[in-house]
Amino acid sequence: MPTSVAQTVVQKENGLQHTRKMLHVGDPSVKKTAVSLLRNLSRNLSLQNEIAKETLPDLVSIIPDTVPSTDLLIETTASACYTLNNIIQNSYQNARDLLNTGGLQKIMTISSGDVYASNKASKAASVLLYSLWTHTELHNAYKKAQFKKTDFVNSRTAKAYHSLKD
């Protein structure tokens, strides 16, 4: 999405507020559309902090507590994780805010997923966890919250993260 279009959607048309409302609509296809829009917008570095401020708790709230099983929910969950990954990569504060929302346990559950059939959501959650560990200034906060390095960096998360880099 061109930067000028993304900025118009976010800053001039109050797009984030409308998109937030769409995240809480009962129709799963509407949620998927909203998350896909946020994912595309979050690729724009200059909008990441604003997207985090406006939508981070909402994104965490739509991530299921268990591994998603339908194609639509898998796609929505994967897009939510990749959106969160985009907004935390360059911001220690956004990563801290993600920790403070209490969503890490859900992300870890999805990352571990079904050991026999890894899906897009599990891969996206794994990438997000690996990226969260790169914020070294948060290691003590993770430990205080009873998480350990292997929750973030392990063979599954490293494989998912490095598969995006290849």
TrEMBL record:
InterPro entries, sorted: ARM-like (IPR011989), ARM-type_fold (IPR016024), Armadillo (IPR000225), Plakophilin/d_Catenin (IPR028435)
SMART domains in UniProt: ARM
Single GO cellular component term: nucleus
Protein's UniProt name: Plakophilin-2 isoform 1
Alphabetical UniProt keywords: Cell adhesion, Cell junction, Repeat
Family label: Belongs to the beta-catenin family.
Domain of life from the UniProt record: Eukaryota
SUPFAM superfamilies in the record: ARM repeat
Compartment(s) of residence: Cell junction
GO BP annotations listed: cell-cell adhesion; desmosome organization; heart development; intermediate filament bundle assembly; protein localization to plasma membrane
